[in-house]
Write a structure and sequence with these properties.
The chain has about 425 residues and is an alpha/beta fold. It contains twelve helices and 21 strands. The longest helix is centred in the N-terminal third of the chain and has 19 residues, at about 15-35. The two termini are about 30 Å apart. The structure holds 5'-O-[hydroxy(phenylacetyl)phosphoryl]adenosine.
Length: about 425
């Protein structure tokens, strides 16, 4: 098979040269990190006051981990390493409470990110002649704009459709001969189930490939989507703290996701002890940015569990491959690709004086899409009152939730004592989605 590369030299670089490059970039990154209030203190404590204090990649272990809480506590500018005038874009993502995490980008940061996505796209065998329909939402979420610029750099015709509006998505795919889609697994299944309803057959479409990510899915789901849409599905992993998509992506051999190690140092650690694990051992993924100026992050704990696939890939790329994400070490939920922490929901509903002590977060599948139902107990006297008042309360809770978690939940009001009570640790989340 003829293998195409976007940047063959760097994608197939020998491991020794790659490590050399990592060290050079790590020193540069330390230089940027020392300009932020958070890292200045932390690095000094670890005896690192200048990039020259980093002599080898092993010195990375002297640096403490960075957590999502660190990002939240540094909001809005504690991790900004450049002049605000040099920042040209920000992206944010949800934190465990109302405070989001923010990543700033310089022009060079965005150029680097675009380069990574161009590599990913070419690695899947797509070309400039493909028509790319981006069904990830545009905005602060990184799935939309991230792939968008990568696809443009490759020279594809980009349809920036964004998420939702299935009828229009299908019409766009048909009218413009879309050949590559970027989409969450759940939305891909939903679209597949709707083709018939909208009177479109697969023969009228020109689909070849789909890039799926932003939420967990299994090999079986991949095969199902490949069969239903008659396409090749490629797994794509990323997180907003590491730019977003473009961290790890499958090549045409679809045997794990190459992680661009000239841009990220990837460590797999035992989540309990923090010790580094070997290739093949499952643990928490920890990333260090190597090419980011505006928001360098050192040893960021992703909370995602996976392992590195030992051995070489037939595509000759030397950047190591990640397994599927096998789980998380925290309670973050991913609902139709959107990350939600139960604590965010609790924070919103407990603002309402009408709300009692108990609530439940219930998630299920409906027409292949995730459905979120927030069940809350309210004080009984409210049930004897006006129905319209209850409806208004429900709407207010729903609106506040939507504003906070960017998902439109169904809100149910319940009488006190009607939701399950737990003597020990409350089981607030009931996730009825089929196992992966
Ligand atoms: O979801 C970035 C992204 C967009 C990746 C589009 C791929 C495609 P966040 O919103 O910060 O960023 O969510 C990151 O989503 O820590 C994982 O738990 C989960 N996740 C992302 N990709 C995958 C995947 C984007 N392929 C969080 N498989 C991560 C399983 C994934 N989980």
């Amino acid at each position: 098979m003829e293998i195409a590369y976007w940047n063959k030299e760097i994608e197939t670089i020998d491991r020794d040269s790659l490590k050399h490059l990592q060290l050079k970039y790590l020193k540069e990154t330390i230089g940027y990190a020392l300009r932020t209030s958070l890292y200045k203190k932390r690095l000094q404590k670890a005896g690192i006051t200048s990039p020259d204090d980093i002599k080898s990649l092993d010195d990375l272990k002297r640096i403490p981990f960075t957590t999502k809480d660190d990002l939240r506590e540094s909001y809005p500018r504690g991790l900004l390493a450049v002049d605000i005038g040099d920042v040209i874009r920000i992206h944010t993502s949800s934190g465990t409470t109302g405070t989001p995490t923010v990543i700033y980008h310089t022009q060079q940061d965005l150029n680097n990110w675009t380069e990574l996505l161009a590599r990913c796209i070419i690695a899947t065998g797509a070309t400039r002649n493909d028509v790319f329909q981006n069904m990830m939402s545009y905005g602060l979420f990184t799935g939309g704009l991230g792939l968008h610029y990568g696809a443009e750099a490759v020279g594809m015709m980009v349809i920036p459709a964004g998420g939702g509006n299935t009828r229009r998505q299908i019409k766009l795919m048909k009218d413009f001969r879309t050949s590559v889609i970027h989409i969450t697994p759940s939305y891909a299944l939903h679209i597949a189930s709707k083709l018939e309803e909208f009177g479109v057959s697969l023969n009228e479409l020109a689909l070849r490939k789909a890039y799926l990510g932003a939420e967990p899915y299994s090999e079986n789901t991949r095969r199902k989507i490949e069969d239903l849409l008659r396409i090749d599905v490629y797994n794509s992993y990323g997180l907003s703290e590491m730019n977003g998509p473009g961290v790890s992506f499958e090549c045409v051999y679809k045997c794990g996701m190459h992680t661009w190690e000239d841009n990220y140092i990837l460590e797999v650690i035992d989540p309990k002890s923090g010790e580094n694990l070997d290739d093949g051992e499952e643990g928490e993924l920890v990333f260090t940015t190597l090419r980011r100026q505006a928001t360098p992050l050192l040893r960021y704990r992703s909370r995602d569990l996976a392992y590195i696939l030992p051995g070489d890939c037939e595509c000759k790329r030397t950047h190591r491959r990640l397994s599927r994400i096998t789980g998380r070490t925290d309670d973050m939920l991913i609902i139709n690709g959107v990350n939600v922490f139960p604590s965010q929901i609790e924070e919103v509903i407990m603002q309402f004086p009408e709300v009692g002590h108990n609530y439940q977060i219930y998630i299920d599948k409906q027409e292949n899409l995730d459905k979120l139902i927030v069940k809350v107990e309210i004080y009984s006297k409210l049930f004897t009152g006006d129905l319209a008042e209850l409806e208004a309360l429900k709407r207010r809770i729903k609106d506040e939730l939507r504003a906070s978690i960017v998902i439109n939940p169904t809100v149910e009001l319940h009488e006190p004592g009607s939701l399950p009570v737990f003597e020990g640790k409350a089981q607030r989340v009931v996730d009825k989605r089929p196992a992966l």
